[in-house]
Amino acid sequence: MNLQNFTTDLYSWLSTNGLKIVLIMIISWIGLKVLHTFMRKVLRKAMIATAQESHRGAVEKRVKTLDAVFFSAVKVVVWLIVGMIILSEFNIEIGPLLAAAGVAGLAFGFGGQYLIRDLISGLFIILEDQYRKGDVIKIAGITGAVENITLRKTTLRDLDGIEHHIPNGEVTTTSNHTKLWSRAHMNIGISYDSNLEKAIEILNRIGKEMAEEEPWRAHIVKPIQSLGVDNFSDSSVDIKVIGETAPASQWDVLREYRKRVKLAFDQDGIEIPYPHRTIVQKKSNHYKSTDIRNPK
After folding, report:
1. In this structure, how many other beta carbons lie within 10 angstroms of the beta carbon of residue 29?
2. Which of 137, 254, 231 is CA-nearest to residue 184?
3. What is the residue-averaged pLDDT of the chain?
4. Who wins on pLDDT, 218 or 4?
């Protein structure tokens, strides 16, 4: 008899409250999907409207960053509300739970100073667009590609493949290597005996050729060109070259540029000096000079 009553009551609850809970969860899930799509479209339109024409390529990275952060916060709020509604369907008083949560939040606030600092710092990082997903940055002494940003922390992946989790409160200085555009620059040393004007002409020619050739044309904003003599070193004349590339393309462009410079210098007899010593020996009133290269 008791089992029959329990079964009847359970069936009655499932057909009313249980069905209502299922409908609430389904509607919430569908609502989040629709809200996510709407939010992404609004963010993309807003970013395109405010972005400069030359910087439209960075819009998608900005949208992904903002979308991930703000939608995560929206999901937390929505599911908290859904959870409270579901609890009310189980005839659980929400008022005492909210009061207890308030007391716990107050106690947590005294011990959560670092968390609050991280959240506030993360909010300013995102609103000020200091960096986005995919950017290569240096923060807290670590350089790597941004894999994820939340209000609390930033996740970097360095060149060795190591994943770093950095609380946003630890970020005091941010160096962004790839925002909007990147700079390719280096010093190239030639020997004092080499033809300086010829070397500069070769460097400028290679930079221009790369800017006109595929696939490098798509990665180069301004061709790499010589700025002139940058320094007189112990064994070389240093020539400064500089150019601008698409974000994060400077390393690939410079690797190709170095290869072409070496091949062109070898062909034209321009020496790139390397460490060597000259030893002078006195023997029978005659001096003998010996050039020892790459001493161990």
Report:
1. 13
2. 254
3. 81
4. 218
In this structure, what token pair is assigned to residue 254?
A: 């410079």
Residues near 201 by beta carbon (within 8 Å), at least 6 away in sequence: none
> In degrees rounded to 5, what are phi and psi of residue 112?
-110, 35
Domain enclosing residue 145, as ranges: 125-176
The CA distance from 160 to 218, in Å, is: 27
pTM of the predicted structure, to 2 decimals: 0.62
In-domain check, residue 18: yes
Residue-by-residue DSSP string for 168-230: GGG-S-EEESSSS-EEEEEEEEE-TTS-HHHHHHHHHHHHHHHHHSTTGGGTEEEEEEEEEEE
Q: How many domains does the chain have?
A: 3
Kind and range of the H or E run holding 139? strand 136-139
For residues 177 and 138, the answer to whether their CB atoms sit within 8 Å is: yes
The pLDDT assigned to 54 comes to: 47
- Is pLDDT of 99 > 70? no
